[in-house]
Amino acid sequence: MSSTANRTPIDLVRQTCAAIRATLDDDRAIALDRVDSVLALLAAEQRELRTLGEQTAHRYYGLQERPEPLPFDQALRAVNDRIASGPALSTPAAHAAASRALAIETDYWRHYTDLVHAQVRKSAAKREGPKDDGFDVARLQRYLRETFGEPELEIEATSLASRGFSKKTYFASLRHAPGLPRELALRVDQPFNYLGTTVRDEFPVLCHLWEHGVKVPQPLALESSGDVLRQPFIVFPRVGGVLVGNNFDYPKPNDALIEDIARHFAALHAVPIAGKPGADEHLVAANLSRLVDKFYADWKATGAASPIVEAAFKWIRENLHLGITTPSYVHSDMNFNNMLIDGDRVEAIVDWEFVHVGSAACDLGYFHYAAEAVAGFDRFLAAYERAGGRRFPRETLDFYILWGQLKLTIMSFQVVTGFNAGQFDDIRYGLAGIHFLPVTQLRVGNKLAELLGSAE
């Protein structure tokens, strides 16, 4: 028999939230669900997650080389550091220890997901429209008039279209500007960007890709000073299409859409490398090594511990040769979160902040889980090859499937760390950690276990 006396304060607050929710409109209800999701995590931490941590720490005991068991966070750190400082995974003892650690941590994240996600309202994953944080419209109007030679141009309306982790997008409606599209999109750097990317670096590459027919919105101008909208931005025509998914949620099966996506992958990978005629595999190797070092430094900066992550970085470094192929431009975040779709067609590929010269297999591996959900990865690869894309060895694709999810894991850890440090003021960023980090951890752990098993 239950009573309010047996409930924790968090339980009582959640019960109150549920009662209030029925009286709210959709936007406010979604916002309240997000608060409830954080409360659900706190409740789970007070109860089930504490027990799960104790059980996991006990399982780690055999890997610690210590006379007594450690608490969960210390046990996790001890095993993490042992993998980081230990011998190569190709040695039998290190291989066995890493495999056992992976199995333990993968079980932890599987149970974590079951315990937490079961309590989080599904509607909490929805997104209400971003709130406009405002800017000086008159200053933007002067900039557009001077930049495009349109002295009569007037901005009729502006709106904040999206606020991402590193960039935000505004729409601006114009009148009396015959030389410009009626609607513009402005891609603006965020003041705090843990990824360290900027539109200044995107702009010249986007111009080159546009000139070679890649499905990017036409880059019209770069404002690099940050004096107009407080941060640098790129001006584009507003394009059609909508987002139909992201890195974790996908549209329903659609062979025609996958065929069109594959064509755009192949078109991107066929673009000649600007300013680097005759670029070879040495450039791919240098860029890949630099990115691995960068993401590992980002990982260490979070202060987190994870045997899965440490072992994955170790495997990537020991098998770097598998990722080195002939060079291509790669988007490096090509998924449904960055494609504007209209029916069965891609209207535009956006958000090019990670574009670099690398292996085309990088984009293919990153798209693996989406392709599996919408048409099957093999069918996607066949469509890509029919469109002129090259065929890659399975071990190269496996390398980039792991590398893509490892990057997502590091970015998820950065989101959680930034939210806990108060660098984000939107609860949505905290929820991203609740929803996405366990998924990427499980993907990395399962893929790495598969690769370690295939090496035996």
Notes on the structure:
- The chain is of the alpha+beta class and 456 residues long.
- The chain contains 15 helices and nine strands.
- The strands form three sheets. A five-stranded antiparallel sheet has the order 1-2-3-5-4. Strands 6-9 form a two-stranded antiparallel ribbon. The chain has a two-stranded antiparallel ribbon with strand order 7-8.
- Helix 3 packs antiparallel against helix 5, helix 10 (307-318) crosses helix 15 and helix 12 packs across helix 13 (377-386).
- The relative contact order is 0.11.
- Residues 1-6 and 122-127 have low confidence and may be disordered.
Could you give the topology of this structure?
Layout: H1 9-21, H2 26-46, H3 48-60, H4 72-85, H5 92-117, H6 137-148, E1 154-163, E2 167-175, E3 183-189, H7 199-211, E4 221-223, E5 233-237, H8 255-269, H9 281-302, H10 307-318, E6 327-330, E7 339-342, E8 345-349, E9 356-359, H11 361-366, H12 368-374, H13 377-386, H14 394-420, H15 427-454
Antiparallel strand pairs: 1-2, 2-3, 3-5, 4-5, 6-9, 7-8
Helix pairs in contact: 1-2, 2-15, 3-4, 3-5, 4-10, 5-15, 8-13, 9-14, 10-14, 10-15, 12-13, 14-15
Any descriptors?
disordered N terminus, two-stranded antiparallel sheet, globular, alpha+beta, 456 residues, five-stranded antiparallel beta sheet
